[in-house]
Each structure stands twice: as C-alpha cells, then as structure tokens.
TrEMBL record, chain A:
<feature type="transmembrane region" description="Helical">
    <location>
        <begin position="399"/>
        <end position="420"/>
    </location>
</feature>
<feature type="transmembrane region" description="Helical">
    <location>
        <begin position="440"/>
        <end position="460"/>
    </location>
</feature>
<feature type="transmembrane region" description="Helical">
    <location>
        <begin position="512"/>
        <end position="531"/>
    </location>
</feature>
<keyword id="KW-0472">Membrane</keyword>
<feature type="transmembrane region" description="Helical">
    <location>
        <begin position="467"/>
        <end position="485"/>
    </location>
</feature>
<protein>
    <submittedName>
        <fullName>Exporter of polyketide antibiotics</fullName>
    </submittedName>
</protein>
<feature type="transmembrane region" description="Helical">
    <location>
        <begin position="20"/>
        <end position="38"/>
    </location>
</feature>
<feature type="transmembrane region" description="Helical">
    <location>
        <begin position="298"/>
        <end position="322"/>
    </location>
</feature>
<feature type="transmembrane region" description="Helical">
    <location>
        <begin position="158"/>
        <end position="179"/>
    </location>
</feature>
UniProtKB/TrEMBL annotation, chain B:
<feature type="domain" description="ABC transporter">
    <location>
        <begin position="5"/>
        <end position="235"/>
    </location>
</feature>
<keyword id="KW-0046">Antibiotic resistance</keyword>
<dbReference type="InterPro" id="IPR017871">
    <property type="entry name" value="ABC_transporter-like_CS"/>
</dbReference>
<dbReference type="InterPro" id="IPR003439">
    <property type="entry name" value="ABC_transporter-like_ATP-bd"/>
</dbReference>
<dbReference type="InterPro" id="IPR003593">
    <property type="entry name" value="AAA+_ATPase"/>
</dbReference>
<comment type="similarity">
    <text>Belongs to the ABC transporter superfamily.</text>
</comment>
<protein>
    <submittedName>
        <fullName>ABC transporter ATP-binding protein</fullName>
    </submittedName>
</protein>
<dbReference type="GO" id="GO:0005524">
    <property type="term" value="F:ATP binding"/>
</dbReference>
<dbReference type="InterPro" id="IPR027417">
    <property type="entry name" value="P-loop_NTPase"/>
</dbReference>
Amino acid sequence: MTRLAVLLRQRARRDRLQLALWLVGTALLAYASVSAVFDTYGDAEDREEILGIAIATRTILVFRGTPNGIDEGAFAFFLLFAWLALMGGLMSTFLAVRHTRMEEEQGRAEYVASTPAGRILPTIATVVHGVLANIGLGLLIALALIGNGLDSSGSLVAGAAIAASGIAFLAFGLFAAQLFRTSRGANGASVAFVLAAYLLRGLGDAAGTPSEDLLHVTPAWPTWLSPIGYGQLTGAFVENDLRPLLVPLGFAVVMIGVVFALQSVRDQGASLLPGRAGRATAGPVLSSSFGLAWRLNLSILLSWTAGGIATGLLATSLSSIVGDVAGSNPQVIEILRRAMGDDASIEQAFVATFYGVVGILAACCAVQVGIRARQEEVHGTAEMVLATRVPRVRWLLEYWVVGVIVIVVVLAAAGIAGVLGASRASDPETLIPNVLEAAAAQLPACLVFLGVTLLVFAFLPRATIPLGWTIVGVAAILGTFGPILQLPEWLTELSPFAHSPVPSGDDTDWSGGLWLLAIGLGAAAAAVVAMRRRELTSGGG
Amino acid sequence: MNTVISTRGLQKRFGRTIALDGLDLTVDAGEIHGFLGPNGAGKSTTIRILLGLARASGGEATLFGSNPWTDAAGLHRRIGYVPGDVSVWPNLTGGEAIDLLSRLRGGVTDKADYESRKQRLIDVFQFDPRKKGRAYSKGNRQKVALIAAFATPADLYLLDEPTSGLDPLMEQVFNREIARVTAEGATVLLSSHILSEVEELCDRVTIIRAGRTVESGTMAELRHLTRTEIAFAAESVPMPFEEIEGSHDLLIDHGRVSFTVDSDRVASVLPELARLDVKGLTVSPPSLEELFLRHYGDELVTLGQAARS
C-alpha cells in the first residue's frame, strides 16, 4: 500500500501543472460557455428556434449533441457535453500513455520495475491516478454547471457522465500502451479512438429520429458504439438516468483486465506488435536528405490521410441523408429558409463543416512534419546528416516541401473520398465540385501552420513541439468550437481556420485564402532564410 | 607542411556559460592528433564549430583554409565524422543508416567498390546491419557511425570519443582502421579523455581544460608531465622499505607498496624492482585527471574559490 502511495504521489507530482491546466481549464471553459449560452439563448423561444434549426440541418448535431428539450440544463448539456467529453478523453489517454509506454520507452520504467514495486504496481498506480483525475474533472464540471444556477442533480449526472466516458478512454489508452512499442504509436491510436468516439455519437445524433415538435432526437445506433454517446444517453437534467454509464464503466473494467493480463505475460519494454527484422541495405528512397525527410514522415502522413479519407467519406455520404430528411419535412424547410437565406443548400453547409475538420487534420499533419525536424535535431541524427554535404538551408527547405506534400495528399485524399461518397447523393453534379473546392480551400490555412511551426523551429527551437501543437490546437478550438462556445467574434477570428474560404456556389469569397497563402509562404521563407544563421543545438542543450 | 585545422583564440559562449575561452589548435596534414581534456572541457564544442554546426563567438577557425561556418557543405565533402554520442534513427536499420550517410557524403559513386569496403568493415566490426536502430546498444550505435565514417574515403576524420562503448577487441579493430586511413594520407583529429588511448595512437596531442589550450606537443614532449604509478605486494619486500631513487609519493597501505616515477624514467627503477623480486607488480599509466590535478591543481583551487565568491 505504501509503495502504491509513493507511485501515486510521484504521478501527481509529475502531472501537477499539466493536469491542473486540463482540469481547471476545461471546467473554466465549461463555466464561461454555459453563461455565454444563456446570454444568447436566455428565452425559451430562442432555444426552441435554435433547436429546430439544429435538428433541421443535422450538421450542427454532429458537433453538438442530442437535443433533449428546451430546459436550460438540457440545452447546455446538448451544446457542450460532447465537446467536454472529448477534452476529458484526450486528457485521459495522454495521461495513460505518459505513465506507461512512454516510461518504458525512455527506460525509466526499468528502474522502477527493478525495485520491489515491480512491473505491475506502476500500472495499478496509473489506473488509480487516471480514475481520480476523471472524478476530479467530473466534479469540477458539475460545479461549473451548478455555479451557473443549473439544477444540482442534473449537474452531477453530467459530471458523472464526463467521468465515466473519461475512464473508458483511460482504459483504452492503457490498452494501446500495451499494444504499441512507442508512445507515439500508442498516443496516435488513442487519439484516433477518442475522435472516432466523438464522431460516432455525432453520426448517431445526425442520423437519429427527430420528434414531432423538433425539440428532441432519438439517436441512431452509432451512438451506442461511443462512450461519449452513453454519456449523452443519461439525459442529464431531464431523465437523469445513470444506468447508461454502466456500459463505458464496464468497458473500462474489461479493458483494464485485458491490460493486466497482457502486462503479466509480456517482457518489460516489449510490445505485442513486435518489430520485424529489417533490410541490410538502404533502398533507393534513402539516397538523399529529402528521401530521409520523406521516409521519416511517411507514417505520420499515412495516419492523417486515413483520418482525411474517413472524414471525406462521411461528409458526402451523410450529406445525402441530411438532404433527404430535410427535404421531406415542410416545417424544416421553412426554418432553414429563415435561418440561412433562400439560396443556401444544406448539403453545401454540411460539406463545408466537414472539410473544416479535414483542414484541421491536414494542418496537424504539417505541424507534425515541422516537429519531426526538431526531433531529429534533439535526437542528434540531424547532426549526422548536416555533417555530410547537406547545407542547413536546404535541409529545412526539404522539410517544408515534405510538409506541403503531406498537406496536399491529406486534402486530396479527403477530396477523392468525398467524391466517392457523393455518388449516392441526390445531386452529385453540384456536390462534387463543391467538395473539391471545399478541400482545396483548406490549403492556405494549412500552409500557415506549416510555416509558423518552421518559424518557431528556426527562432525558438526548444518551443517547437509545445508551441507547434498549442498553436494548431488553440486555432482548431477557436475556429471549430468558437461559435459553439459562444466566444467573442474577434477571438474566433484569430484562428486561421476561421479565414478559410467557404465555398457556397458561385459567389465564394477567396480573399481570405490569398491572405493566408501570403502569410504561410512568408513565414516559411523567413524560417528557411533564418537557417543560414541558425546553429544546430546539441542534445537539447 | 600543410595545416589542415587551425584555430586561434577560438571562443564560444552559450548565454552566460563560456564553453571555449581562447582555444588554439593546429593540426597538420597526415598526422593523428589527440585532442585531450576532461569531460566538459570543450572538445565536442570545438569539433561542432569545425563542422559548421555551431558558430564561433570569437577568434578564428579554418579547415583546409576555409571558414567552416560559411563553407560547411563544401568542406563536408572531405570530412568523415563520428559524433561523441551517436544517435541512430529508431525506425531505420543499421544497414540503412550506413548506406544513407555514405550516399549523403557522396561516397557511393563506385557502387561495387563501396559495397566491398562496407562489407569488409561490417565483418571486421562484427556488426549486424539488419536490426532496427532502437534495438542497438551504445557500442553498436557507435559502430554505425564508425562504419559510415570509414566506408567513404575522407581527407580528414573528426572523431569525438570514437571508442566509447566499444569493447577492447573492437578498440583494436578501430586502431587498425586509423592506421589504414592515415597510411592512405588522411588526417585524424581524435578527441578523448583517456590518456593511454591517445598515447597509443597519436603523433601529437593538444590538451585543453575549461575551454583553453594548456599543452600542445608530441607525446615525447609531454612525457615529462606525467608520472606512472608502480605498486606491488608489501609482504614480498623486507620492511622498512627504502625509497627507490627517483621515486615520489611512497605509500604503504592495504598490504600494497606504491610510489610514482616520472613516466620517462620508468625503466630506471625496473632493475631495483627485479633485484627485490617483488610480487604482484602493477604499473599504471597516469590518468588525465591525475595529470590535471598534479600540474594544474593550484589553478583548480583558485578557480573553485573564484566560483564560490
């Protein structure tokens, strides 16, 4: 017991800043968003109208939740729950991998395992640590809701739902850490799982059955595949039913059982997906520093491209469903006419929203290419390359070129997937050019993130990894969730994603794209030129 | 004689830390030059400046008469480099990393020739090129860098503690490769903190401490700086033990008699040891740290006081 306490204290000590930021930051955002929601939608009639629009367009439901009436608490739960659960999920999986696979990868777990604590106890400590963190997050969010004057039992159910889905994600993170040899692989699989859970419940909501009064939706089956979906099924503030939470908690128990079963049979430092014996000589790709940069970024590219393809397929195949539902209901058409003007097509709005997500995926991929340059520097392998005939300026320029290629590949893959998905749409001839424009419109914003990451690499090398992810993460939250969180317009406008052109038929405004293009290319050029005077840092020193 | 490496008053600051403080280093063509200093003396920093990976804050450095910072890529055609702490790509095999580095150095124009040179090195270093980088131990990572450095002919080899992590057998293989490349006319700068390693290989030596050159010359010229420790079992000689002429620091402790003699006078005490028929004789070459303590101890003390005040 005392050893477990020591390990727990060490985890709390290591995470004290990071976890405090996740917990307090998420709770504060919840508090601020809820109060902003009631500033905007204070009247029951306002809420009734916006619910009607949301159910009519369905797009909104993918990024919000299950409509459950005009009660204040239920309305806030509908707007915010899925997003908060997404944050809790990312917090939990990063926590799980950080204290398990990353420790093993860096060799620190070996020291700990050599003490009487052994191989298994540190994982138990991580489970306890993660569960406590999720309970803390649930309580803080319940407090944030109560602080806004919402019903306390409903608030506690919402907090419990956050904690339960977070614990399910924690268990998956621990499972991925057993499966993969690197923390990068485990984190990648976990983030994909969390995003899939978010999107599955979005699909469930968007494809659900609306009630006659257009205030409720009964979600479709994809929701039942998602821990976040079961959180929504509690119907916090209305039904207040805790029973659906048994499913994510049960999933967590089973997963954690599997984790301990796996850990008790495998070697320390080994994984279930073993490395293969490699080739003795290098292939033709590894003939130049560009080939090396390409090879080092290939796995990054493949995983983000898979995300792009999935999102693109969803965008168009779902837009046809949305069009069908909306087209059959005269009341819906009336609401849409009022909300979006006569010309707007639901399908166009839907496609634009989904390709906004594709843009974020491509931008993350580009940021990761810039971060790879920094990892090469810290790891010392950049030094080996730059000690050959490769000049510094060319070396960074090649990373930029790889970054441009990965952006184009992710966007193109998503565009092609969208075209394939559009084949079943009611009107493919107008949808297909719309899809391709929407994919291309993301390019300038992605170039901004690539350029800015390389600029940070050139001038503030140590900040490359944290700042690179923070910039794209904050921009994605502001750009995608800013409107949902009711953030002020100037704040949302800080995000390059907010300036990506939105294709809407003939009168698309491309000027924002040109500005982004200029900024992106300018930042990249400044970074590459700065390499003329930039020293290589050694071993992080 | 051609000068390959020349630095004059080389300085390097990292913020408020001074890594190099007026370093002078001259290496002539064809010589094996030992670059000696304790950990943190500035050896790696100097080599990184010579490679154009870091820029000097003051003083000058030339390599083949060119500026290593501005002409880096051009100079690198003529250089083979082994870093002090070798990292390899975790997801590339050792064989892939060797081929990649050789191609980047432009050493594979004659493919068959390169393959035979590489294969010979892989054999003599007993290296398995099929494993992924993350699976290699420190010694095996070192072999990746050594094979890549020696598989492509160079005019100058910059080797930063190249034998760290190698077992004694591999050190012998390394020494033979150094002999081979210098026989072909190459120049070698070999940094180390182990004096005996440098003694065995090098024609000339530069000793640095705290970023400054303290001694430079041939090994014979530096011999006067060092004392060798001689020790044997106390029970094998009659007590009380009479000090042998020319010896210093006599100590009888833990059943051992030990004393030191100037390294160039070791042979002169051997007849007396033979006459005494001593048992369990050991002759230990001086460590660099001892050398520093002996000759620069006063300076270390004053430096320590200055740092505290």
